[in-house]
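Q: What residues go here?
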């Protein structure tokens, strides 16, 4: 009974979102209320404690939204200036072959956008670009969704790790410091590195997977075959490896903000250079069947190749150099490297003492480099927003620098900020309530006089670990995938199940770093079938109503990814610690 009640808020989310197809803006407030009721009646949490835990969730949600807003402002600034159109044309001009275009746009451009913006943006941006090139709408959505999955763990400049893993695991700080001998931030960076290892081993074939899905399901029906994909296998595998190597190195030797950005920029630059030099170009050009042979469900209300499906009208993009078009993102990466790698700057940006403290009856507030609310409602809980240190500030700064760089007028700037603001309305409501729900569940065991020593999340984790026993590492990624499929977000999945995986690993006596790493990967893979992302992508190509077809097709790469991540997880926790204990015998 205890386990069922602990799972009740998540079951409500599953029923409302997946079963009844409610929007997250309606489902998440109800799930939060259910968590409050379970915490109040069954966990014996006081109303004041539940309000404090909810405030912690709201502060976390505001951190995410600050990052997302900055990412969208920069993206729409480049769109309004014509820079994004120039970047797209730079990729598309390399080859007329649809398979090459999938590699360059659905893989490299989509992974870059994921690293820069995240939160469903890549598919919603890249799918209409592919449509404009003449792709069937359904093929464009499938390619864009599959192509960017390897980058999702580090989307929106590392948000799924920084906010999704690091912040919720502050609950286990004493355990991580005492038993693991590291800070929570250091632990989260290790998790990010292990996640990149899984992705590099499994995800480097995703360009080939995306091409294979398109040529098989959207090629001539009487000649359905993956042979056209195998013809460009050298290009696809090279592209995957060219992405994976700098991606993996960034995760291990920099921080979680960089893998997707650097992997896409370095790998994309190398691959484009080789293609322009004549290497990896296919001998025969592959294209879709004639338009009149396409089934009705391939195309929506927007005709492929039609004018105006490429985004906002732009002026000045035609004569812009590629270096100038990319420069705001290059500037962003440089800023992030400086502020993350140079310790004096990093310490200054996160110095909570650099501000004004205000004591009030509801808690202690700090206003400065860090916005903090301590001792919320006298319950001992606290939350903060390091608004200058998190990527949102540097994304906004990069967008502001782009204005004079591209000679933008006031109307263009206003439109970019307006579009970014409009995109935040639905995520604001959903994120605030879902993360408030998760914090109520995570902190339920710490309340004074709580009926259970374990929180709702911990109780669920222990029950799941006991149910699957030694086989648990094999299914751990699927748990993260389920969370992302329901919530539509790797970050929310990590917030919900990061502590779950941590507790399950300790219950089984295996490495928690490696297991929480599987969570970060599973949360990324779940985006393949996340209804929110699919609806958003389909809407951009005029094909809303084909969600079921997209989910059915995307189950193929999802199961491939989950099975092989499960295989590597079993190997990492049960075999490799005996073979290479210095590397794999980790906390």
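A:
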């Amino acid at each position: 009974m205890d386990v069922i009640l602990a799972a009740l808020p998540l079951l409500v989310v599953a029923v409302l979102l997946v079963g009844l197809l409610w929007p997250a803006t309606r489902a998440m407030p109800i799930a939060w209320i259910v968590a409050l009721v379970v915490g109040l009646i069954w966990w014996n949490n006081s109303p004041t404690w539940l309000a404090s835990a909810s405030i912690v969730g709201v502060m976390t949600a505001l951190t995410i939204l600050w990052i997302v807003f900055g990412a969208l402002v920069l993206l729409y600034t480049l769109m309004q200036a014509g820079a994004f159109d120039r970047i797209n044309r730079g990729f598309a001009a390399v080859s007329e072959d649809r398979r090459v275009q999938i590699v360059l746009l659905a893989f490299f451009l989509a992974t870059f956008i994921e690293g820069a913006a995240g939160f469903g943006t890549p598919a919603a941006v890249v799918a209409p670009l592919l449509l404009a090139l003449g792709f069937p709408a359904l093929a464009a959505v499938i390619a864009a969704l599959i192509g960017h999955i390897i980058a999702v763990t580090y989307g929106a400049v590392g948000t799924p790790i920084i906010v999704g893993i690091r912040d919720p695991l502050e609950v286990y700080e004493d355990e991580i410091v005492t038993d693991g001998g590291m800070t929570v931030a250091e632990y989260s960076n290790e998790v990010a590195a292990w996640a990149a290892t899984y992705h590099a081993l499994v995800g480097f074939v995703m360009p080939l997977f995306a091409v294979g899905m398109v040529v098989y399901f959207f090629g001539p029906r009487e000649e359905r075959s993956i042979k056209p994909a195998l013809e460009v296998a050298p290009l696809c595998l090279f592209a995957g490896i060219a992405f994976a190597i700098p991606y993996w190195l960034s995760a291990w030797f920099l921080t979680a903000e960089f893998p997707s950005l650097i992997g896409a920029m370095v790998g994309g630059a190398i691959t484009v250079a080789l293609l322009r030099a004549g290497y990896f170009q296919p001998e025969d050009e592959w294209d879709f069947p004639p338009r009149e042979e396409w089934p009705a469900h391939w195309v929506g209300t927007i005709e492929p190749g039609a004018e105006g499906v490429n985004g906002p009208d732009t002026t000045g993009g035609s004569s812009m150099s590629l270096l100038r078009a990319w420069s705001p993102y290059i500037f962003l990466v440089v800023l992030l490297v400086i502020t993350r790698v140079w310790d004096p700057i990093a310490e200054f940006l996160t110095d909570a003492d650099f501000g004004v403290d205000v004591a009030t009856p509801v808690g202690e507030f700090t206003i400065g480099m860090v916005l903090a609310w301590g001792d919320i409602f006298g319950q001992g809980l606290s939350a903060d927003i390091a608004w200058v240190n998190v990527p949102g500030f540097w994304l906004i700064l990069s967008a502001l620098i782009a204005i004079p760089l591209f000679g933008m007028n006031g109307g263009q700037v206003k439109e970019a900020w307006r579009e970014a603001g409009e995109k935040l309305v639905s995520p604001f409501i959903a994120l605030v309530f879902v993360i408030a729900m998760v914090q109520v569940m995570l902190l339920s065991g710490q309340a004074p006089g709580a009926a259970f020593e374990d929180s709702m999340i911990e109780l669920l984790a222990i029950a799941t670990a006991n149910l699957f026993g030694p086989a648990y590492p094999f299914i751990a990624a699927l748990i993260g995938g389920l969370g992302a499929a329901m919530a539509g977000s790797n970050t929310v999945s990590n917030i919900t199940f990061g502590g779950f995986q941590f507790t399950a690993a300790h219950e089984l006596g295996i490495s928690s770093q490696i297991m929480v790493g599987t969570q970060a990967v599973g949360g990324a893979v779940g985006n393949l079938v996340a209804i929110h992302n699919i609806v958003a992508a389909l809407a951009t190509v005029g094909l809303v109503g084909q969600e079921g077809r997209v989910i059915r097709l995307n189950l193929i790469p999802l199961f491939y990814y989950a099975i092989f991540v499960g295989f590597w997880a079993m190997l990492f926790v049960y075999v490799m610690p005996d073979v290479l204990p210095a590397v794999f015998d980790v906390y």
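A: Context that may help when evaluating the design: The radius of gyration is 23 Å. The first strand starts at residue 355 and ends at 360.
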